[in-house]
Inverse folding.
């Protein structure tokens, strides 16, 4: 499966390239944020969670993570490496990245339980397909998890050969791609707003800042 609009996307990105002033601003902001995220770098960035709310993850998280009720970006990357090596099932990466992306928000655990309780066996198959596509091309992985190339013509969840998972939208499946696939980036509402502000690329966010269906 290939993404037929790669060239069009590249052309649009070139047409909306940042000028030098914006590039300097972005670089300085990145450097400042790296120091603020964690003393030992980006991989040390910690996200807290409430262990009681996220019950059932004992087979995914180490006892150390569970006891301190914090998971680092680097620990999720480590789980992704074990998934790639076959030492863990892909559902472990989904769980860890979802936890990292949700933190202490009250609805995070509820959403996770709703997703995973639906069709766990089909979820593993969909993850396997999507991650395999992403290894060839991150955009192909995005397309697989999205369920098509058009926002208004998506395939239903768990429809082969796609990898769309019911209840898992771009904000969270791009986190799976980010941890599993070099070069893949998270695209949640916060990042979409930042990209739109810098580049004025359309159809990312509406005037009120809410997200379009990417």
């Amino acid at each position: 499966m290939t993404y037929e609009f790669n060239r069009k996307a590249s052309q649009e990105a070139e047409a909306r390239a940042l000028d030098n002033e914006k590039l300097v601003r972005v670089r300085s902001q990145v450097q400042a944020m790296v120091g603020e995220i964690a003393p030992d770098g980006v991989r040390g960035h910690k996200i807290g969670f409430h262990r009681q709310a996220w019950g059932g993850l004992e087979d995914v998280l180490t006892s150390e993570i569970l006891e301190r009720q914090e998971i680092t970006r680097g620990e999720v990357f480590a789980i992704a490496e074990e998934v790639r090596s076959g030492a863990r099932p892909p559902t472990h990466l989904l769980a860890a990245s979802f936890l990292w992306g949700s933190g202490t928000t009250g609805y995070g655990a509820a959403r996770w339980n709703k997703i995973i309780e639906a069709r766990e066996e089909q979820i593993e198959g969909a993850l396997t397909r999507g991650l395999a596509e992403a290894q060839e091309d991150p955009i192909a992985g995005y397309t697989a998890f999205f369920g098509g190339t058009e926002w208004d013509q998506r395939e239903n969840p768990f429809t082969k050969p796609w990898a769309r998972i019911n209840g898992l939208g771009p904000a969270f499946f791009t986190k799976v791609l980010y941890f599993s696939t070099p070069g893949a980036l998270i695209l949640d509402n916060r990042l979409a707003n930042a990209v739109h502000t810098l580049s004025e690329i359309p159809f990312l966010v509406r005037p009120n800042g809410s997200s379009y269906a990417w």
Summary: The longest helix spans residues 20-37.
